[in-house]
Predict the 3D structure of the following.
Amino acid sequence: MKSWQKLGLALTLSSALLSACSPEAVNNSSGGGSGEILIGVQTPTTGSSAKMGEDMNNAIKMATEEINEKGGIDGKKIKLEFADDACDPQTATAAANKLVSQGVKAVIGFYCSGATLPSSGIYHNAGVPVMVTAASSAKIPAQGYKEVFLTTATTDQQSEAAAEYMLKTLGGKRVAIVHDNTAFAKGLAETTQTAVQKQGGQVVAFEAINPEEKDFTAMLTQLKAQKPDATFWTAYYAAGGLLIKQFEQLGVSGAIGVGDGSNDKTLIEIAGKEAAEDAFVITSPTAEFIPEAKSFIDTYKSKFNMEPGPYTAVSYDGMRLLADAIKRAGSDDKAAIVKALSETKSFKTFGGDVSFKSDGTLEKSNFIVLKVKNGQFTRE
């Protein structure tokens, strides 16, 4: 074994051991007892997207507690085991191996597509059903893993929605697209480019930036010269907020908008209220814009003393759907759960009824458009 391979193995084992000792793990044991069903939760709880992981974890815990308080699933309580993937492919691989080794019957979570893609292969090889409640890269279902199900629409569908909004609603023709070279963002950028051209628009700039940098002046100056009618950022809110701020400072023409990876109020805080005004967001439904979710929001605020995030409601619903599938399967056998999930028809969620296609994606897209007004997201 080469030195770099030994180092990689050591890091993976070290990460798995550290994760196994995490205080977040319910009951702290490595496997479910006879009266438990062990469910893994994979989200980022460190790194720049840690807030999203916290939001998702809270929602999954909340749904689990409610299910357990009602007697669990056929008398068995759900036990959660958490693993941090840090939105990083290598960390995600270690997290997936950890959860598989602990004998989880299913896994839920997944925020970054770049972390979801490598870890989903590990779950596929182990036959573990996977409920993806945030990551939406079209590359995820393209892998052909029958164990993987997405409760948000894919980047292909998001691209169509973004192109339609920029070209038809805003009346633009010249579109600029900016990404950060991560799997999700680059994939969304590429499919948006195709969708814009398909719908009769012109992509005048297709740029990539390093999200670790803080100054995007050089790229934005070149972009300004192209005089775009609309600019679409496909990556995450940390760099997205700075991009919007500098976009406005330099006076680049046209509207600026972001994909669902940037759907968080932190985006507005980073950009500043004035710079963020009229910025648009293409996203899956969020709890605050769903009338039926009011009770859920109130309970969430009371329980966690914080506002629900953009993927809180869908993660809550995802846990409910997973529990429903286990109940319908009549067993915690992994293959039986996968079959039950594939047979899901019209499961009621805050975002609408969920039914899956044969590739594990939603039968119907659920993307909506938000716009920033007076420092707040409003629905278009």
Q: What stands out?
A: The longest strand covers residues 36-43.
